[in-house]
Amino acid sequence: MPVYKLKAKGNYGDMPKGYEFQVVSSSISSPDAKDVEKEIARLGFNKQAQSYRSSGNFEVKKG
User: Fold this and answer.
1) pLDDT, tens digit, for every residue of 3-29?
2) What DSSP letter does each residue of the chain carry, written as one string?
3) How far is it, in rounded angstroms, from Cα 48 to Cα 58?
4) Which of 16, 20, 53, 63 could form a disulfide with 37 if both were Cys (CB 3.0 to 4.6 A apart)?
5) pLDDT tens digit string along 40-49?
6) Are 53 and 34 in contact, with CB atoms under 8 Å apart?
7) At CA 3, angle to CA 54 and CA 7, rounded to 5?
């Protein structure tokens, strides 16, 4: 499964702008929103941060 590196474009809940993390997703073109939300929750960020699960909120790099 592809691994994506995501970087927050803004402050999302308690996740600061510029925060970087990795997401493993079965989606080919961009990470699936459910996978992004699960990873944000696993990292301990609040529900508000989890609501920014769309890959459009992040700079996405594959690899």
Assistant:
1) 999 999 999 999 999 999 999 999 999
2) --EEEEEESS-BTTBPTT-EEEEE-S-SSS--HHHHHHHHHHTT--HHHHTT-SGGGEEEEE-
3) 15
4) 53
5) 999 999 999 9
6) yes
7) 50
